[in-house]
Structure to design on (308 residues):
Protein backbone atom coordinates (compact mmCIF):
# COMPACT_ATOMS: atom_id res chain seq x y z
CA UNK A 1 0.00 0.00 0.00
CA UNK A 2 1.42 3.37 -1.02
CA UNK A 3 2.03 6.18 1.46
CA UNK A 4 -0.93 8.19 0.16
CA UNK A 5 -3.45 5.39 0.58
CA UNK A 6 -2.03 4.48 3.97
CA UNK A 7 -2.63 8.05 5.20
CA UNK A 8 -6.02 8.10 3.49
CA UNK A 9 -7.17 5.00 5.39
CA UNK A 10 -5.95 6.45 8.68
CA UNK A 11 -7.70 9.79 8.13
CA UNK A 12 -10.91 8.24 6.81
CA UNK A 13 -11.19 5.63 9.58
CA UNK A 14 -10.21 7.75 12.57
CA UNK A 15 -11.98 10.82 11.18
CA UNK A 16 -15.22 8.88 10.80
CA UNK A 17 -14.92 7.51 14.34
CA UNK A 18 -14.11 10.93 15.81
CA UNK A 19 -16.94 12.52 13.83
CA UNK A 20 -19.47 10.00 15.11
CA UNK A 21 -18.40 10.51 18.72
CA UNK A 22 -18.44 14.30 18.35
CA UNK A 23 -21.92 14.17 16.84
CA UNK A 24 -23.10 11.95 19.67
CA UNK A 25 -21.64 14.32 22.26
CA UNK A 26 -22.98 17.48 20.65
CA UNK A 27 -26.51 16.14 20.28
CA UNK A 28 -26.74 14.81 23.81
CA UNK A 29 -25.25 17.75 25.72
CA UNK A 30 -27.88 19.96 27.35
CA UNK A 31 -27.37 23.67 26.80
CA UNK A 32 -29.30 25.52 29.46
CA UNK A 33 -29.29 28.85 27.69
CA UNK A 34 -31.11 27.32 24.70
CA UNK A 35 -33.71 25.32 26.58
CA UNK A 36 -37.24 26.78 26.78
CA UNK A 37 -38.91 27.38 30.10
CA UNK A 38 -41.13 24.41 29.39
CA UNK A 39 -38.59 21.57 29.62
CA UNK A 40 -40.99 19.15 27.93
CA UNK A 41 -40.22 20.59 24.47
CA UNK A 42 -37.07 21.51 22.56
CA UNK A 43 -38.39 24.92 21.58
CA UNK A 44 -38.82 24.00 17.90
CA UNK A 45 -42.23 25.02 16.52
CA UNK A 46 -43.69 24.49 13.04
CA UNK A 47 -46.86 25.92 11.56
CA UNK A 48 -47.52 27.85 14.75
CA UNK A 49 -48.61 24.98 16.92
CA UNK A 50 -46.58 21.91 15.99
CA UNK A 51 -43.86 21.46 18.64
CA UNK A 52 -41.01 18.99 19.08
CA UNK A 53 -41.13 17.13 22.36
CA UNK A 54 -37.95 16.80 24.39
CA UNK A 55 -37.60 13.01 24.56
CA UNK A 56 -33.84 12.30 24.85
CA UNK A 57 -32.50 8.78 24.54
CA UNK A 58 -32.03 6.86 27.79
CA UNK A 59 -28.61 7.46 29.30
CA UNK A 60 -27.77 3.75 29.24
CA UNK A 61 -28.39 3.69 25.50
CA UNK A 62 -26.09 6.67 24.97
CA UNK A 63 -23.41 4.93 27.02
CA UNK A 64 -23.69 1.93 24.70
CA UNK A 65 -22.77 4.20 21.80
CA UNK A 66 -19.75 5.48 23.69
CA UNK A 67 -18.66 1.96 24.64
CA UNK A 68 -18.97 0.92 20.98
CA UNK A 69 -16.76 3.82 19.89
CA UNK A 70 -14.14 3.02 22.53
CA UNK A 71 -14.25 -0.66 21.53
CA UNK A 72 -13.62 0.31 17.90
CA UNK A 73 -10.61 2.38 18.89
CA UNK A 74 -9.13 -0.41 21.04
CA UNK A 75 -9.74 -2.91 18.23
CA UNK A 76 -7.87 -0.72 15.73
CA UNK A 77 -4.93 -0.51 18.14
CA UNK A 78 -4.71 -4.27 18.71
CA UNK A 79 -5.63 -5.59 15.26
CA UNK A 80 -4.74 -4.45 11.70
CA UNK A 81 -7.26 -2.00 10.29
CA UNK A 82 -5.37 1.26 9.80
CA UNK A 83 -3.50 1.07 6.52
CA UNK A 84 -0.17 -0.68 6.93
CA UNK A 85 -0.32 -0.60 10.73
CA UNK A 86 -0.27 -4.27 11.79
CA UNK A 87 -1.64 -3.71 15.28
CA UNK A 88 0.17 -4.34 18.55
CA UNK A 89 -1.36 -7.81 18.90
CA UNK A 90 0.63 -9.24 16.01
CA UNK A 91 -2.46 -10.92 14.52
CA UNK A 92 -2.74 -11.77 10.83
CA UNK A 93 -4.76 -14.15 8.71
CA UNK A 94 -1.64 -16.15 7.94
CA UNK A 95 -0.56 -16.45 11.57
CA UNK A 96 -4.03 -17.59 12.60
CA UNK A 97 -4.15 -20.08 9.74
CA UNK A 98 -0.72 -21.45 10.61
CA UNK A 99 -1.69 -21.74 14.28
CA UNK A 100 -4.86 -23.62 13.41
CA UNK A 101 -2.98 -25.91 11.02
CA UNK A 102 -0.36 -26.61 13.69
CA UNK A 103 -3.13 -27.43 16.16
CA UNK A 104 -4.76 -29.77 13.64
CA UNK A 105 -1.43 -31.41 12.83
CA UNK A 106 -0.79 -32.01 16.52
CA UNK A 107 -4.21 -33.59 16.87
CA UNK A 108 -4.38 -35.63 13.65
CA UNK A 109 -0.77 -35.90 12.45
CA UNK A 110 -0.20 -39.25 14.12
CA UNK A 111 -3.26 -40.68 12.37
CA UNK A 112 -1.67 -40.12 8.96
CA UNK A 113 1.87 -40.86 10.16
CA UNK A 114 0.74 -44.40 11.01
CA UNK A 115 0.63 -45.12 7.26
CA UNK A 116 3.99 -43.51 6.45
CA UNK A 117 5.85 -46.80 5.99
CA UNK A 118 3.09 -48.65 4.14
CA UNK A 119 3.58 -48.96 0.35
CA UNK A 120 1.01 -46.93 -1.54
CA UNK A 121 -0.40 -49.94 -3.47
CA UNK A 122 -1.15 -51.53 -0.08
CA UNK A 123 -2.72 -48.31 1.16
CA UNK A 124 -5.02 -48.39 -1.87
CA UNK A 125 -6.55 -51.55 -0.36
CA UNK A 126 -6.59 -50.35 3.26
CA UNK A 127 -10.08 -49.27 4.35
CA UNK A 128 -8.85 -46.87 7.05
CA UNK A 129 -6.39 -45.16 4.71
CA UNK A 130 -9.00 -44.89 1.96
CA UNK A 131 -11.48 -43.31 4.34
CA UNK A 132 -8.93 -40.64 5.24
CA UNK A 133 -7.93 -40.17 1.61
CA UNK A 134 -11.55 -39.79 0.54
CA UNK A 135 -12.11 -37.05 3.12
CA UNK A 136 -9.13 -35.13 1.75
CA UNK A 137 -10.26 -35.71 -1.83
CA UNK A 138 -13.76 -34.39 -1.16
CA UNK A 139 -12.32 -31.26 0.48
CA UNK A 140 -9.47 -30.51 -1.91
CA UNK A 141 -10.16 -32.22 -5.26
CA UNK A 142 -13.87 -32.81 -5.81
CA UNK A 143 -14.51 -29.25 -6.98
CA UNK A 144 -12.66 -29.95 -10.23
CA UNK A 145 -12.61 -33.74 -10.53
CA UNK A 146 -16.08 -34.43 -9.12
CA UNK A 147 -17.01 -36.37 -6.02
CA UNK A 148 -16.58 -39.63 -7.94
CA UNK A 149 -13.26 -38.57 -9.50
CA UNK A 150 -14.60 -38.88 -13.04
CA UNK A 151 -13.91 -35.25 -13.87
CA UNK A 152 -15.68 -33.18 -16.52
CA UNK A 153 -14.86 -31.46 -19.77
CA UNK A 154 -11.50 -29.79 -19.18
CA UNK A 155 -10.94 -31.64 -15.88
CA UNK A 156 -9.27 -35.08 -16.01
CA UNK A 157 -11.04 -38.31 -15.20
CA UNK A 158 -9.04 -39.97 -12.41
CA UNK A 159 -10.77 -43.33 -12.65
CA UNK A 160 -9.30 -44.34 -16.04
CA UNK A 161 -5.77 -44.91 -17.32
CA UNK A 162 -5.46 -41.90 -19.64
CA UNK A 163 -3.29 -39.79 -17.35
CA UNK A 164 -1.40 -36.96 -19.02
CA UNK A 165 1.51 -37.07 -16.56
CA UNK A 166 1.37 -40.77 -15.69
CA UNK A 167 -0.55 -42.68 -13.03
CA UNK A 168 2.28 -44.43 -11.21
CA UNK A 169 2.26 -43.66 -7.46
CA UNK A 170 5.40 -41.54 -7.78
CA UNK A 171 3.92 -39.53 -10.63
CA UNK A 172 0.69 -38.90 -8.73
CA UNK A 173 2.61 -37.78 -5.65
CA UNK A 174 4.63 -35.37 -7.80
CA UNK A 175 1.45 -34.02 -9.40
CA UNK A 176 -0.31 -33.44 -6.09
CA UNK A 177 2.78 -32.02 -4.40
CA UNK A 178 4.08 -29.67 -7.10
CA UNK A 179 1.05 -29.20 -9.33
CA UNK A 180 1.10 -29.29 -13.12
CA UNK A 181 0.76 -26.72 -15.88
CA UNK A 182 -0.30 -27.93 -19.30
CA UNK A 183 -0.11 -25.66 -22.32
CA UNK A 184 -1.39 -26.27 -25.83
CA UNK A 185 -0.35 -23.35 -28.06
CA UNK A 186 -2.88 -21.77 -30.38
CA UNK A 187 -2.15 -22.99 -33.92
CA UNK A 188 -4.93 -21.13 -35.69
CA UNK A 189 -2.70 -18.30 -36.95
CA UNK A 190 -0.14 -20.79 -38.30
CA UNK A 191 -2.52 -23.36 -39.79
CA UNK A 192 -5.43 -21.24 -40.94
CA UNK A 193 -8.98 -22.53 -41.26
CA UNK A 194 -8.16 -24.99 -44.02
CA UNK A 195 -5.06 -26.25 -42.25
CA UNK A 196 -7.06 -26.90 -39.08
CA UNK A 197 -9.62 -28.84 -41.13
CA UNK A 198 -6.85 -30.97 -42.61
CA UNK A 199 -5.27 -31.70 -39.22
CA UNK A 200 -8.67 -32.78 -37.88
CA UNK A 201 -9.05 -35.12 -40.85
CA UNK A 202 -5.67 -36.65 -40.04
CA UNK A 203 -6.55 -37.08 -36.38
CA UNK A 204 -9.74 -38.88 -37.42
CA UNK A 205 -7.62 -41.19 -39.56
CA UNK A 206 -5.24 -42.16 -36.74
CA UNK A 207 -7.27 -45.20 -35.59
CA UNK A 208 -7.25 -46.52 -39.16
CA UNK A 209 -3.49 -46.03 -39.41
CA UNK A 210 -3.04 -47.83 -36.09
CA UNK A 211 -5.10 -50.72 -37.50
CA UNK A 212 -2.75 -51.05 -40.49
CA UNK A 213 -4.21 -48.74 -43.13
CA UNK A 214 -1.56 -47.53 -45.55
CA UNK A 215 -0.94 -43.76 -45.38
CA UNK A 216 -1.07 -43.60 -49.17
CA UNK A 217 -4.76 -44.54 -49.10
CA UNK A 218 -5.79 -41.62 -46.89
CA UNK A 219 -8.10 -38.92 -48.19
CA UNK A 220 -6.37 -35.79 -49.52
CA UNK A 221 -7.34 -33.71 -46.48
CA UNK A 222 -5.93 -36.35 -44.12
CA UNK A 223 -2.72 -36.58 -46.13
CA UNK A 224 -2.26 -32.80 -46.04
CA UNK A 225 -3.11 -32.84 -42.34
CA UNK A 226 -0.43 -35.48 -41.73
CA UNK A 227 2.18 -33.19 -43.23
CA UNK A 228 1.07 -30.29 -41.05
CA UNK A 229 0.99 -32.57 -37.99
CA UNK A 230 4.60 -33.56 -38.64
CA UNK A 231 5.53 -29.89 -38.83
CA UNK A 232 3.65 -28.48 -35.85
CA UNK A 233 2.65 -31.29 -33.48
CA UNK A 234 5.22 -34.07 -33.26
CA UNK A 235 7.42 -32.11 -30.84
CA UNK A 236 4.89 -32.80 -28.08
CA UNK A 237 2.62 -35.57 -29.31
CA UNK A 238 5.28 -37.66 -31.04
CA UNK A 239 5.51 -39.10 -34.53
CA UNK A 240 2.90 -41.73 -33.70
CA UNK A 241 0.64 -39.16 -31.93
CA UNK A 242 0.67 -41.22 -28.73
CA UNK A 243 1.72 -38.28 -26.60
CA UNK A 244 4.47 -37.78 -24.06
CA UNK A 245 3.87 -38.06 -20.31
CA UNK A 246 7.07 -36.16 -19.61
CA UNK A 247 5.44 -33.11 -21.21
CA UNK A 248 1.86 -33.85 -20.27
CA UNK A 249 1.02 -34.17 -23.98
CA UNK A 250 -2.07 -36.35 -24.51
CA UNK A 251 -2.36 -39.48 -26.60
CA UNK A 252 -4.37 -38.54 -29.69
CA UNK A 253 -4.99 -42.12 -30.85
CA UNK A 254 -7.42 -43.11 -28.07
CA UNK A 255 -10.94 -41.98 -27.20
CA UNK A 256 -10.05 -40.00 -24.07
CA UNK A 257 -10.08 -36.33 -25.07
CA UNK A 258 -9.90 -33.92 -22.17
CA UNK A 259 -11.56 -30.99 -23.94
CA UNK A 260 -14.02 -32.95 -26.05
CA UNK A 261 -13.63 -35.09 -29.17
CA UNK A 262 -16.10 -33.59 -31.63
CA UNK A 263 -14.79 -31.76 -34.68
CA UNK A 264 -15.96 -28.48 -33.15
CA UNK A 265 -14.12 -29.24 -29.89
CA UNK A 266 -10.89 -30.13 -31.67
CA UNK A 267 -11.13 -27.09 -33.92
CA UNK A 268 -11.56 -24.81 -30.92
CA UNK A 269 -8.48 -26.31 -29.21
CA UNK A 270 -6.34 -26.04 -32.35
CA UNK A 271 -7.45 -22.49 -33.09
CA UNK A 272 -7.30 -21.03 -29.58
CA UNK A 273 -5.01 -23.37 -27.64
CA UNK A 274 -5.49 -24.37 -24.02
CA UNK A 275 -3.77 -23.65 -20.71
CA UNK A 276 -4.65 -25.87 -17.74
CA UNK A 277 -3.25 -25.80 -14.22
CA UNK A 278 -3.37 -28.32 -11.42
CA UNK A 279 -2.55 -26.31 -8.25
CA UNK A 280 0.26 -27.52 -6.00
CA UNK A 281 -0.84 -28.86 -2.63
CA UNK A 282 2.54 -28.97 -0.86
CA UNK A 283 1.77 -25.86 1.20
CA UNK A 284 -1.58 -27.28 2.30
CA UNK A 285 -1.13 -31.03 2.67
CA UNK A 286 1.65 -32.77 4.57
CA UNK A 287 3.61 -35.58 2.82
CA UNK A 288 1.73 -38.19 4.86
CA UNK A 289 -1.60 -36.76 3.75
CA UNK A 290 -0.46 -36.67 0.13
CA UNK A 291 0.46 -40.36 0.30
CA UNK A 292 -2.97 -41.27 1.66
CA UNK A 293 -4.64 -39.10 -0.99
CA UNK A 294 -2.54 -40.79 -3.68
CA UNK A 295 -3.70 -44.18 -2.45
CA UNK A 296 -7.31 -43.07 -2.67
CA UNK A 297 -6.84 -41.78 -6.21
CA UNK A 298 -5.31 -45.10 -7.22
CA UNK A 299 -8.28 -46.89 -5.70
CA UNK A 300 -10.60 -44.97 -8.02
CA UNK A 301 -8.99 -46.66 -11.00
CA UNK A 302 -9.24 -50.10 -9.41
CA UNK A 303 -12.86 -49.63 -8.33
CA UNK A 304 -13.82 -48.60 -11.88
CA UNK A 305 -12.24 -51.75 -13.32
CA UNK A 306 -9.66 -49.87 -15.40
CA UNK A 307 -6.54 -51.88 -16.07
CA UNK A 308 -3.10 -50.36 -15.44
Amino acid sequence: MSGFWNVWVWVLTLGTLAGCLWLLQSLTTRRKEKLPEDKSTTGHVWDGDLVELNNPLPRWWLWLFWITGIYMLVYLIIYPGLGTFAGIGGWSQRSQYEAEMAKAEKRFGNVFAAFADTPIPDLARNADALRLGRNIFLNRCATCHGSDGRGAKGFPNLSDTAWLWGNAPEAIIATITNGRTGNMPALGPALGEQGVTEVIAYLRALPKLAAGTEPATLAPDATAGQQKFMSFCIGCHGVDARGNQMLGAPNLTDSDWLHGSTDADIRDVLMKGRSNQMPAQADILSPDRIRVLTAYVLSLRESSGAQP
In short: The chain has twelve helices and four strands. The longest helix spans residues 3-28. Residues 121 and 295 are 7 Å apart (CA to CA).
